[in-house]
Design a protein that fits this description.
Number of strands: 16
CATH superfamily of the largest domain: tm_1862 like domain
Structural class: alpha/beta
Largest sheet: 6 strands, parallel
Bound molecules: iron/sulfur cluster
CATH architecture of the largest domain: Alpha-Beta Horseshoe
Distance between the termini: 69 Å
CATH topology of the largest domain: pyruvate-formate lyase- activating enzyme
Helix content: 25-40%
CATH class of the largest domain: Alpha Beta
Mean pLDDT: 92
């Protein structure tokens, strides 16, 4: 039993067998047997010790570290989501839940569930967790935090149905203890306002126990200013090499030999020239080298990075390839935003994403960067936004044209583009959600179709070679991937036919 029990929904606690990019599977629908089979195979139960989670999402580990400044270790536990009730007793005062996509309104879920008409695993697992907590005369308060808290602004009625007492958003490193104490004292409001000032670097404690995927945070914020992005509203801060090394050592000591270096754009680490956003290659190489020098770390990869920086400094990619010991039989992934193929839209909503290049150069930047990344055995996992405010059918077809050119960038290019439905966050908060079930037209249908066609091609051509797991597991995964991919294509094709949409490009 513990006074404070922290946990996260199952999709954030499973390691998805460490398959590259498999975390996207947390957003697949629960509605079809094919997707249920895929989830069951890909999302094993997280390891635990008597119900205590061995690894936890980085954000939850940060909260744990922050609370330990106010509370004693024995008062707090981080629990496996399906063993959480083992730790709840009369002395429990708070159950804190971390979720990224509690109601399935995130862009990936909205896209994978036809605008929320189906139920993604993120939403289903979050609901399962909330409804599994002891009911009746509760002595404890349920507090929800994490990047998905904004969902309850759109679905306020869900808060009571799921038994949530308090919602808290934003960076809490410097105020977590105070907020939890107020909740215990009964003086906190239901919606706890985001702290006016984000924490300074010295107010952010390092994690004290291992994080999922060996994740360590390199920086916070992003100065590129894309209007559809929440991250850009945060102040830029960079963690020191010592801080990053310390967190990587905690993970390495727990047996995590691969390190994910998390940022929203790794190539902005300690950037010096904000006018050009030219990467500070020495600083970037130093943090990667620092992590690779940690005893027990055998490999590493960045999480996110911008394509324009890849083009701006191809030498940096080549140097990082050597530092990270990336080879032709050991590729790494990089998540990045393609967003749109339309130069007009780029100018409107993300002109700084192109720096040091001009918006008009976006298609060439995308093509060159994919080639540079692939030449260095980096696998770009891109996202395209469908339904950006002001997007015309011509803009959507520009995205189709660009994807077509991307497939010809070399004789055997490797990348995927995941289609995301626009959700109104960042500067564009207040705009409408893009609801594909009601709003889709032939042009946007073709963007989604083209993305899925590319994903299926990659499943067929590369999944076998890129997965590192026993042959039998690999065979099962490949079979599921091929069946699942064709299932999605079948749904899309039938949907297109029903609506009279023609597949682009038209047959000659
Ligand atoms: S570059 Fe990425 S993280 Fe930065 S503002 Fe744009 S979308 Fe957000």
């Amino acid at each position: 039993m513990a006074r404070i029990v922290l946990t996260a929904d199952y999709t954030l606690m499973t390691d998805f067998r460490d398959l590259p990019l498999a975390t996207f599977f947390s957003c697949i629908p629960t509605d079809f047997w094919q997707s249920r089979l895929a989830f069951r195979a890909l999302a094993p139960s997280p390891p635990h010790t008597k119900g205590e989670a061995r690894y936890a999402p980085y954000g939850l580990r940060k909260l744990e570290a922050a609370l330990l400044r106010t509370f004693e270790r024995e008062e707090l536990v981080v629990a496996h989501p399906r063993h959480v009730n083992r730790f709840i007793g009369p002395e429990t005062e708070i159950v804190g839940i971390h979720s990224m996509d509690p109601l399935g309104l995130g862009p990936v879920s909205m896209s994978f569930t036809n605008g929320g008409t189906l139920t993604p695993y993120t939403k289903a697992c979050f609901e399962e967790l909330c409804l599994s907590l002891p009911d009746g005369n509760r002595n404890f308060k349920v507090v929800l935090g994490g990047a998905g808290v904004w969902h309850f602004g759109f679905r306020p009625e869900e808060k009571d149905r799921l038994g949530i007492d308090h919602l808290v958003a934003g960076e809490l490193d410097h105020v977590a203890g105070e907020i939890f104490q107020d909740i215990m004292d009964g003086t906190a409001p239901e919606r706890i306002p985001e702290p006016l000032n984000p924490p300074r670097l010295e107010e952010i404690p390092p994690i004290v126990a291992p994080s999922m995927h060996g994740m360590v945070e390199v920086m916070r914020g992003c100065g590129r200013g894309c209007q559809f992005c929440e991250v850009t509203l945060r102040r830029l801060r960079y963690f020191s090499t010592e801080f990053i090394q310390h967190e990587a050592s905690i993970n390495a000591r727990a047996g995590l030999t691969n390190a994910w270096l998390h940022s929203d754009d790794i190539f902005l680490y300690k950037v010096e020239d904000y006018k050009t956003m030219q990467p500070n290659s020495d600083a970037i190489k130093e943090i990667f080298q620092t992590v690779m020098d940690v005893k027990g770390i055998a490999s590493g990869n960045p999480t996110h990075g911008t394509l324009s920086s890849v083009c701006a400094d191809p030498e940096l990619i080549a140097d990082l390839t050597k530092i990270l010991r990336v080879r032709s039989d050991n590729w790494i992934g990089l998540q990045s935003g393609l967003e749109t193929g339309s130069v007009t839209l780029v100018e409107k909503v993300m002109p700084r994403k192109l720096l040091p290049f001009k918006p008009s150069e976006w298609p060439e930047v995308v093509l060159d960067s994919i080639k540079i990344l692939n030449d260095n055995y980096w696998y770009p996992a891109l996202t395209a936004i469908i339904g950006l405010p002001g997007e015309t059918p011509e803009d959507a077809y520009d995205t189709c044209v660009l994807m077509d050119r991307m497939e010809k960038v070399s004789s055997n290019p490797h990348f995927i583009v995941a289609p995301l439905s626009f959700v109104p966050i960042g500067v564009l908060r207040g705009e409408d959600f893009y609801r594909p079930d009601e709003m889709i037209d032939e042009a946007r249908f073709n963007v989604a179709y083209r993305c899925w066609k590319g994903i299926l091609r990659e499943i067929d051509e590369t999944l076998w070679g890129f997965s590192k797991m026993p042959t039998i597991v690999k065979a099962i995964m490949n079979t599921i991937g091929r069946i699942g991919g064709r299932h999605v294509m079948g749904i899309l094709e039938r949907f297109g036919q029903r609506n009279g949409f023609k597949i682009w490009p038209p047959l000659a």
